[in-house]
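Internal tracking record. Fields below are filled automatically when a chain is submitted to the structure queue. Please do not edit lines marked as system-generated. If the sequence contains nonstandard residues, flag them in the REMARKS field before resubmitting.
Queue: standard
Priority: normal
Entity type: single polypeptide chain
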Amino acid sequence: MLWIKSLHIVFIASWFAGLFYLPRILVNLAQETDTAATQRLLLMARKLYRFMSILSLPAIVFGAWLWLGYGIGKGPGNGWMHAKLFLVILVIGYHHACGSLLKKFENGVNTRSHTWFRWFNEVPVLLLLAIVILVVVKPF
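SYSTEM-GENERATED OUTPUT FOLLOWS
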């Protein structure tokens, strides 16, 4: 079980690195006026989105393995797991929202400001903070 837990943590950390950085690229895209710089940022964003999508899969699979295979978070007194799973669904939604926003930039139809993207960039920090607190503290 410790091997699976270790791999889950590594893939979560790697996935979140992408979730922290891709929105920052979107901030830069929203500010950029130079075509060459925009194309370079789009290329970086596309590659990062593909890579973090790949990283998300083992993170989810190892987490499901811990939950369903080893029973972590199952049974009475494990309400924290339900809250964590809800937050994980929000993380997956955020991941897909990043992809949708990237497509808007690729199609030249972004309507949001760099300020909006700066706030959007803070969401994964809050989600990770809440998930870690739920897993470590197990408040309910």
